[in-house]
């Protein structure tokens, strides 16, 4: 089926860093539908050739060893550029005729990819509607909306309402690129394709869950943007809550977009909203020491670059099991992981030694960069009496499958073209996620949250995050993955 992908905000970073490299990779692997056309739309004037040349260079950079000049040369003619301004009605009329002429009589399904600054989402959608470019006659018309989807519940609700004046929800694909990651999808496979985990995946066996997304990188050039956003909006409302829902959800009856999203939504509905009075004791906020020196960041900035949030899922499966969510910039290493910490054996026959008070079985789902799964359990150390040690069984995706992990956008772009919304956020899902984050964000902003703790780059965040966890008789699983 012929496909046209129109990228709005085409001259931006996302197009060159992620979208075009992903489309190129799909093409190289023979997965892009045969008649795929890619049209860039933004204000910067470019000829087709000039744009292609720029994209060629960035694709070489981001695809690395998989870049093949001969493959690029056959792929490149499917890319064109049509300059235009989202604010101008006539530019959409001209885009419409341009697309119709290129697609020819047979027409094509279309993906409108909004890769613009968020303030252009509403005008772009309105223009597409006004130019009569969204009605599905013979072919699908889909819209992809990048994050951030709103900055709080109110703005997300307004944006959803606006989107729905033009598009039906079935045409809308809200991106959370975490869902495009292989290891994130594998949470569902691990849980629901195997019989041994589900029986113990509940409050009877699980003591708590830790979800960490640590980044070694600092805010750097994104200072001006980041300072308005902060860690809760940047990482918690989307990526971390997605990991939480996949970890906590019940099995859907079918592997199908609505069934999966219904189950995720049920989890979000069950997450207890934090009372204002609990925010100071249930969250931690930190800022790395050099953050205020970053370009674009005000000298007095109180924006958090690190956060911990303790959530509860009030349902039969999870009652009483805390979910600790944590993320930070300028940490000791990059690692995104979900740790399922199981309860200790009910009666311990063996002396575990003085330091192992907290050690019990745990399952570590390594999302990135050392994609894998480790199961930790006690083992007898040979020839040392009854001395025990916590050891692990380890699966490494890259070793096991001898393949590199594809970039998330490959899967996501292909799914949009195929009309599969399983890995995209539904309107109610985004709003429910904001509903969980809003009270915390608000309390932090009003000075009702915990004090802002400064931390040195290169560690695991502010020291009080470690002490806070210890006071609850838990330990963070602070282990940098070994990258081979
Ligand atoms: C983005 C955030 O959504 O996710 C960034 O805006 C963050 O601040 C990034 O660095 C992390 O994504 P990944 O795929 O590198 O874990």
Descriptive account of the structure:
This protein is of the alpha/beta class. It has two domains: 3-146, Rossmann fold, CATH 3.40.50.720; 179-405 and 425-471, 2-Layer Sandwich (Dihydrodipicolinate Reductase, domain 2), CATH 3.30.360. It is built from 14 helices and 15 strands. Strand 13 (372-380) and strand 14 form a beta hairpin. The longest helix is centred in the middle third of the chain and has 26 residues, at 223-248. The chain starts with a strand and ends in a 13-residue tail after the last helix. The structure holds 6-O-phosphono-beta-D-glucopyranose (BG6). 6-O-phosphono-beta-D-glucopyranose binds next to loops.
Q: What is the secondary structure topology, with strand pairs?
A:
Layout: E1 3-8, H1 13-28, E2 36-41, H2 48-63, H3 69-75, E3 79-81, H4 89-103, E4 109-114, H5 121-130, E5 141-145, H6 153-166, E6 172-174, H7 182-192, E7 206-214, H8 223-248, H9 257-270, H10 276-282, E8 283-288, E9 306-312, E10 322-328, E11 335-342, E12 362-368, E13 372-380, E14 388-396, H11 397-401, H12 408-418, H13 427-446, E15 452-455, H14 463-471
Helix pairs in contact: 1-2, 1-12, 5-6, 6-13, 8-9, 8-13, 9-13
């Amino acid at each position: 089926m012929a496909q046209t992908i129109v990228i709005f905000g085409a001259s931006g970073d996302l197009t060159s860093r992620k979208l075009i490299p992903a489309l190129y990779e799909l093409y190289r692997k023979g997965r892009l539908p045969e008649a795929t056309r890619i049209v860039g739309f933004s204000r910067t004037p470019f000829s087709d050739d000039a744009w292609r040349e720029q994209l060629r260079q960035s694709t070489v950079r981001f695809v690395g060893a998989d870049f093949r000049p001969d493959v690029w040369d056959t792929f490149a003619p499917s890319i064109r550029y049509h300059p235009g301004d989202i604010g101008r009605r006539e530019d959409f009329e001209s885009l419409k005729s341009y697309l119709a002429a290129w697609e020819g009589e047979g027409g094509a399904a279309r993906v409108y990819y909004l890769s613009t600054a968020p303030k252009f989402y509403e005008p772009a959608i309105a223009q597409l509607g006004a130019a009569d470019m969204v009605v599905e006659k013979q072919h699908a018309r889909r819209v992809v909306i990048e994050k951030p989807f709103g900055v709080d519940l109110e703005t997300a609700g307004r944006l959803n309402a606006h989107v729905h004046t033009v598009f039906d929800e079935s045409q809308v694909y809200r991106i959370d690129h975490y869902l495009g990651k292989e290891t994130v999808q594998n949470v569902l496979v691990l849980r629901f394709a195997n019989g041994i985990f589900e029986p113990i995946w509940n409050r009877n066996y699980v003591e708590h869950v830790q979800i960490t997304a640590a980044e070694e990188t600092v805010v750097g050039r994104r200072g001006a943007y980041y300072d308005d956003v902060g860690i809760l909006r940047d990482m918690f409302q989307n990526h971390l809550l997605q990991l939480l829902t996949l970890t906590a959800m019940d099995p859907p009856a079918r592997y199908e977009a609505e069934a999966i999203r219904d189950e995720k939504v049920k989890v979000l509905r069950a997450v207890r909203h934090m009372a204002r009075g609990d925010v100071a004791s249930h969250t931690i906020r930190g800022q790395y020491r050099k953050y205020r020196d970053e370009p674009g960041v005000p000298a007095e900035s109180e924006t958090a670059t690190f956060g911990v949030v303790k959530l509860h899922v009030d349902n039969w499966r999870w009652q009483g099991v805390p979910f600790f969510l944590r993320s930070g910039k300028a940490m000791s290493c990059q690692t995104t992981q979900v740790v399922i910490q199981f309860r200790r054996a009910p009666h311990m026959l063996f002396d575990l030694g003085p330091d192992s008070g907290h050690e019990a079985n745990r399952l570590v789902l390594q999302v990135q960069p050392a994609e894998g799964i480790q199961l930790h359990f006690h083992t007898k150390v040979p020839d040392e009496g009854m001395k025990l040690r916590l050891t692990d069984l380890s699966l490494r995706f890259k070793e096991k499958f001898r393949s590199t992990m594809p970039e998330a956008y490959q899967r996501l772009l292909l799914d949009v073209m195929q009309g599969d919304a399983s890995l995209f956020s539904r309107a109610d899902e985004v709003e429910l996620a904001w509903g969980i984050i809003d009270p915390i964000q608000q309390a932090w902003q009003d000075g009702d949250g915990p004090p802002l703790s400064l931390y040195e780059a290169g560690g695991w965040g502010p020291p009080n995050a470690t002490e806070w966890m210890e006071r609850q008789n838990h330990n963070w699983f602070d282990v940098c993955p070994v990258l081979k």
